[in-house]
Amino acid sequence: xxxxxxxxxxxxxxxxxxxxxxxxxxxxxxxxxxxxxDLARNASYEEVLYMLWHGELPDTAELAAFSxxxxxxxxxxxxxxxxxxKLAAADEEPMAAVRTVASMLSxxxxxxxxxxxxxxxxxxxxxxxxxxxLPTAVAAFKRLRNGNDPVAPxxxxxxxxxxxxxxxxxxxxEVLAExxxxxxxxxxxxxxxxxxxxxxxxxSTLSDVHSAITSAVGTLAGPLHGGANANVMRMxxxxxxxxxxxxxxxxxxxxxxxxxxxFGHRVYNVKDPRAKILGxxxxxxxxxxxxxxxxxxxxxxxxxxxxxxxIAPNVDFYSASTYYQMGIPIDLYTPIFAMSRSGGWVxxxxxxxxxxxxxxxxxxxxxxxxxxxxPIEDR
Length: 379
Description:
Order of helices and strands: EEEHHHHHHHHHHHHHHHH
Number of helices: 16
Strand order of the largest sheet: 1-2-3
Radius of gyration: 22 Å
Strand content: under 5%
Structural class: mainly alpha
């Protein structure tokens, strides 16, 4: 067996998957054969979830039944909601709150926690509840920490509309709902990223779905994986406050050894296809509001980084200004990522269970091999 070390498992193929395909050189992202551009512009988040979990796009009746089953699971148990209240009162970090809720949902799931972890129907029900309830928890957390009462979910709104309704206590207009739904679709899955892989590792031990999703949430909370779009928006705010031209600010930041948030990707060597789509939405939102400064600032930075550094933006670069123009607090960007990606996590966990083998890599030992024992009294 080779002892060649692949730090970060870079380039190592550890599984076969029928869920998503990424061509980093061409800038392509595909979910179960469908180009992300087609899905983002034509499919709802519920359609994409159904496809990821069941292998094919639903027909009208299947989508209606699936959407109804999702909507029926949105409400939080009172004990879970009380925990969200305590987390908000303690000013907990939003992603830590999401991690706590993801784990706690297990205690209130009607399916027996001791059920066969590979029972697909049970896992689909659990996955549906997790994906339906996390948005309710995130919206409640935001409102409670601001001194407002949570807004109960509604079953007559779709997944994206309902979240924005619970967040702001008013129904979103068509543009905002469509934009947010598109963002959820774009973030639903992305191969074996760090959080997806950690969920798969947990599932490979035949631990339960809730444990796997909790592992994934905890992984996404790390700044090297989640949080990039929040950093992008804070950077844009800093540039705006500086009264400098965006390109001058970036040039100065690079000279000072600072990193420009939202650029570069572990997989893509060209512009992230999701960034192209969200860039268009950022421009549309700015035009609708009569102020396109965030979009224009982003474009200027993108052009400078391409010409001077030869690197392209990732999805976080344009999701930042898109969410900001929707009135979403910056520190909720990563929890929203988790809300969306929970569907992809569930799909990968289901896939892992279907053809399971314990994930157990090796490490190359570089320590001492012939240490001589010294009695404690002689050390």
